[in-house]
Write a structure and sequence with these properties.
single chain, mainly alpha, two-stranded antiparallel ribbon
């Protein structure tokens, strides 16, 4: 297979998105780890998931989920309860502090990007908006 312009574009997007994600993590996480932040977002998305559902969604082993959830419990960012319909399962949900922390992380990321966009010309900001639309389409979010 020959390398073409599409391959080059795909590689450039991959590198840029990876670097952007790293920079966003560095500027926003504060006192929690990237794994903890990801777990908070997954708990919010799944709405009271079981530990097994968290393991599947995060693509990590159950013992790792248990450790991560325990660290979030210790920080009062989530709570864990026994599932009333299946006493063998536990469900996890965000506490008000966990929701506040997740909002803080998201706000810091958005603030970082807003500051970067403000440094661009109006034409480049328009192009950035188009790029966001294209990325959403690539991801199936549009």
């Amino acid at each position: 297979m020959m390398w073409d312009e599409t391959d080059d574009t795909a590689a450039r997007i991959r590198r840029a998105v990876t670097r952007l994600n790293r920079r966003l993590r560095q500027t926003s996480l504060g006192g929690i780890s990237p794994s903890q932040a990801s777990m908070l977002a997954t708990i919010e998305k799944l709405e009271r998931p079981t530990l097994g559902a968290l393991a599947a969604a995060e693509q990590i082993q159950p013992p790792s989920v248990t450790r991560l959830v325990q660290s979030l419990l210790d920080a009062s960012l989530c709570s864990r309860t026994v599932d009333p319909t299946d006493r063998r399962s536990q469900r996890v949900e965000l506490t008000p502090a966990g929701r506040k922390e997740l909002a803080r992380i998201r706000n810091k990321k958005t603030e970082f990007l807003r500051e970067q966009l403000e440094q661009l010309s109006s034409e480049d900001r328009r192009r950035a908006s188009e790029l966001a639309t294209l990325l959403e389409r690539i991801l199936g979010d549009a």
